[in-house]
């Protein structure tokens, strides 16, 4: 067995990859030489174990991004045939034996194992979702809409159906919350609507990303639709990425379930986001604009606004939140021929009651206002493009827009009486806001904070905000490291933040569960004590399991490769045809032998 250290991102061997290794700009010459020595040009060398993704980040040198460590071995040729079995959600799945993978539809798909034998011991759902996560290892991320447009066309253009009302939402912060609030309100209306919701990232299960009336896509549907999409990609030579395949899966799911309203949250930016192939949404919504993903979207608020304004369509209205550069977006709306440019103040009555403090804005209130204004805008005569037959009553509007996504200042009352707050605050502004919100909501409380960060965040500034606004003694801070490729090393956090000297951490057991239990044990039982878990969405699945949530959660077999789709370097949106990597000869994971 050989270990290859890749300088920028993981690489899985495939018959055509060897020749690309020497040319690939992301592969070091040392790696290319090692690959040549292995003489594997005609054989697949695949990941041998299940431990590499969840532990590879511990191999890196302190103070630098972790190096990717992968082990390769020649697998025994393996094909499997799947019969009926029961899955976690009670839907029909498949058992593995010999031969082929058979889907519930008439067109079964044959394939040779492109992972090791362990795949045969897991469900077909786990196989396909695991494979989806690994797609970006094989395909360069090409900026543009060509891939998703070609897939969409082969699927029959399901999102071009004039009977489907699409509400398209972009923004730096708040887009996921606004999307959920709109979808929930329309569900509560109970007017015969079938409401689809597309959101990301998920907390515990990949299936959270696509829902119909709050029902997650089933494992059986994932198994039924994903092979069809991969077959299209293979037949038409479409190098689709993780998010493009996921978007296509959602579109097919909504079509098959007969959705007549779809609330679409963009993944990144807007102009070149996969969701932006929807030609005629009922409305575009831009929640807020701030500095994020500056290497990709641009390094000024104005440039980022132009990218997110790319979802604005001719003859369709756009509604914007208060935290946007109005001059830029208003001009963008004019240039694109939008039917109107609206703010919440333009739509909602008694808006003076909801004015925000510039120093301490209430983001949930702002998101609720945007959701309310969007729905009221769509009910106006001049903009009416809706399938519901009656105006939404105020009580239903209030109830729906009060909904929050999980882990957004989510209170959890334990049986023992302790209160835990879950929040995905993951960068300095969000951490600062969380600390202020905690102090305002619970002015007399004492807090213990369980926190883990992603390695691309300013952990030092986040630590400062925690100590200044939440706790004043590092002893009340518990550092953890999520089992995720983007998790910051505990050593790196401690080195960057000497002010955390004295906090709790365990280099032998870095888990969220360990520090949650320690934090609860340190609490005296007083109603004035609150445990806060924050720092990253990647912590939340483990935190929720530790706290006893009974909800769908993807298995460790999937979790060990979760995040593989995020391991690419990324560049600026210079043009719709620019590639993030030049290793264009990397193929799709083959669905058929």
From TrEMBL:
Entry GO MF terms: ATP binding; dihydrofolate synthase activity; metal ion binding; tetrahydrofolylpolyglutamate synthase activity
Keyword Transferase recorded: no
Q: Where is this region: Disordered?
A: 80-116, 572-593
Record key words, sorted: ATP-binding, Ligase, Magnesium, Metal-binding, Nucleotide-binding
What the entry lists under Pfam families is as follows: Mur_ligase_C
Extract the SUPFAM superfamilies matched here: MurD-like peptide ligases, catalytic domain, MurD-like peptide ligases, peptide-binding domain
Provide the leader sequence positions. Answer: none
Locations of Low complexity compositional bias? 83-96
Domain spans labelled Mur ligase C-terminal: 408-520
Record carries keyword NAD:
no
Q: Which GO terms describe its cellular component?
A: cytosol; mitochondrion
Any transmembrane segments, and where? Answer: none
Biased composition range(s): Polar residues: 97-112
- Matching PROSITE patterns, A to Z? FOLYLPOLYGLU_SYNT_2
UniProt-listed InterPro entries: Folylpolyglutamate_synth, Folylpolyglutamate_synth_CS, Mur-like_cat_sf, Mur_ligase_C, Mur_ligase_C_dom_sf
Family as reported in the entry's similarity comment: Belongs to the folylpolyglutamate synthase family.
NCBIfam families reported for this sequence? folC
Record protein name field: Probable bifunctional folylpolyglutamate synthase/dihydropteroate synthase
Q: Which organism is it from?
A: Seminavis robusta
Q: What phylogenetic lineage does the species belong to?
A: Eukaryota, Sar, Stramenopiles, Ochrophyta, Bacillariophyta
